[in-house]
Amino acid sequence: MTPTARPALVAVAHGSRDPGALRTVTALLERVRELRPGLDVRLGHIEIDRPPLADTLAALCGEAVLVPLLLGRGQHVKHDIPRTLATAGRHLRARVAAPLGPHPLLVEALYGRLVEAGWQLDARSVRGTGVVLAAAGSRDPDSAADTRRTARLLGERLGGVPVLPAYASAASPTVPEALRALAARGRHRIAIASYFTAPGRFAAQSAAGAPWIASAPLGAHPALARLVLHRYEEALTCPWAGTGGAAPTPADQAVTSALVPA
Hints:
Blueprint: E1 8-13, H1 19-35, E2 41-45, H2 53-58, E3 62-68, H3 75-86, E4 92-96, H4 104-117, E5 129-135, H5 141-157, E6 163-167, H6 175-184, E7 189-194, H7 201-207, H8 222-236, H9 250-258
Parallel strand pairs: 1-2, 1-3, 3-4, 5-6, 5-7
Helix pairs in contact: 1-8, 4-5, 4-8
InterPro entries: CbiX-like, Sirohydro_Cobaltochel/CbiX
Keywords: Lyase, Metal-binding
Pfam families: CbiX (PF01903)
């Protein structure tokens, strides 16, 4: 274990049984490395996929910034990642960056994926068009607030087209419920914007119900790679979240939460 000149960037992915998830996250991190040559970029998973986050942290020495490849504040960001960091040895000091969303760069990635899927809009079709922002879902109210914020930002990016957040689990409305709600408002040309970092069961399940088009997961979109680096640099301006695996203090957690735009 050799200390590096700059803190390592540890991307923290959820993990999935879908083999496409690991390939997608790996491609995203390759794009991050292309944008920042020489930066030590590593990957750790919360569950299922390898390497697990604990093993990634054990192989590091010096300083690191953990960047969650997650789209809002929820159980994993608030509890699971800090808990794993708290068990790291005293060879490591680490900061935990804010999750990727909400942020304008994330909205650019969502918009880009919709365009790739065939999104086209003109003055004649605005009134009949709507979008469902399909997310994984969480019981944490902060996570739902972050998804709603992203939905509002995406609606603005799309020129005022209504965007309803919907969830594959743990929260409501579901994707079918959101589709029905938009149809009841006269929106019969409805796209599903996939609010997932990588492929998986929830992403596939959400896209399957699309009455028009469904975008691909965000994946290695250039805007997402830029956002990963932005969260890394942003975290470097904040105090260390402890030394040698110390658990984050309430003040440290408040700093991390404050990084997420209101």
